[in-house]
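Quick sanity check, LysR family transcriptional regulator:
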Amino acid sequence: MDLLGAWRAFVNVSERGSFTEGAAATRVPQSVASRRVAALEKHLGERLFDRSSRGAALTHFGRDMLPLAKRLIRLADDMEHEAERARLSPLRFAVPDTCTVRDLARLDAEARRDGVYLDLHTAPPAERAELARSREVRAALTAVPPADALWSVPLGLAGADDRLPGTVYVETLRAGRTGRASRRTRVWIQPEDDVPHIRDPLFRVRDAVGLQPAQVTVAVTLTAATAEVLTSTDLLLCSSRQAMDLGLHWRPIGELRLARGYGVTAAAGDDAERVRTRLRRAVARCLGAPDENGEAPSRSST
């Protein structure tokens, strides 16, 4: 028996004194309302109404039950309202501050179509991890090695000069060599990539091929690093999609393969699962991660 539906029919019939009008208020046929009230009376072992051709009048037992029934219906309605509010409550989500406004807006829009409402908070890697640890956000995209990642974004070097070779070898930037190296070209690591699995291998290559320490360095901001690249022969470590956004020319690195890796950290398992499953493709597009065919999304496809 639909106990809540039966009590709702009972309240509506009692308030209107008619099964026909009470059924209409309950939004069910009159026969359904009658069956529900009859089943409720059988369940309780007492009649709730005296039925006659003039309508339905509450019995003494029915009058005693009416205040409790109204309280039950109000509580059920309040629970449904709170459940809807909880469902629509934004999921505060920490994401890389390298994501553009357009990328974030599209992530938000796709999430809404999937019934997930986001409160996006952009931050660098260490801050995202701390926000997740302190539960200031419900979920965060955190930096992890590519082997452990849900999303992986290949990195290369990008410069303002479109005459870059097809592959850039770090060792060609060594001071004393001819061409580009004589200008002490620097490689800028942006804050998003200031994590051990990206920064340390690049530092090891720098030291192994004899570059000066300052030739591979971590930038204070992406804006500052991009300005240096646009006004010199310097190179920026970035993804191909990011290079496109910045108006730079991207090339792979000859000596090693680097990639940003992202996982999800969340206090509640259902929040993490929601991001991993329902938002997986939308997050990939936002990060510029390659699709199933291994191709990075172009700006027109995002």
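Posting the structure with no commentary besides this: Residues 92-302 form a domain with the D-Maltodextrin-Binding Protein; domain 2 fold (CATH 3.40.190.290).
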